[in-house]
Design goal:
By secondary structure, this protein is mainly alpha-helical. It folds into 2 domains: 19-63, no CATH class; 68-105, no CATH class. Helices cover 51% and strands 0% of the residues.
Length: 105
Amino acid sequence: MLYEKNVLFVDLDGTLVSTDALLESILIFLKANPLLIIFLFMWLLKGKAYFKDQLAQRVMPNPATLPYHRNVLEVYTPSNSIWTHSVRCQSNVAPNGLDAKRNFC
């Protein structure tokens, strides 16, 4: 078996966060230097996968600034996992309504 524990995969865009990670990455990329927009078009001509890969190699949205859907984090993440701890700390979501920064992280 590939996984020893139960794993839940949750879609990022629109499910876990209320934004589009690709759009966020494009905006971060262009904010650094708007003249690099030509690279976006060149990469896109080589296909969507190539475009996403090239962009991901250069920028990454900061998880702390993403707008998380709190209800998804509270319902679908086990409270004892390391990943949950990290995401909840970044998004200020803590179990039982506690303040994440003060009581959970």
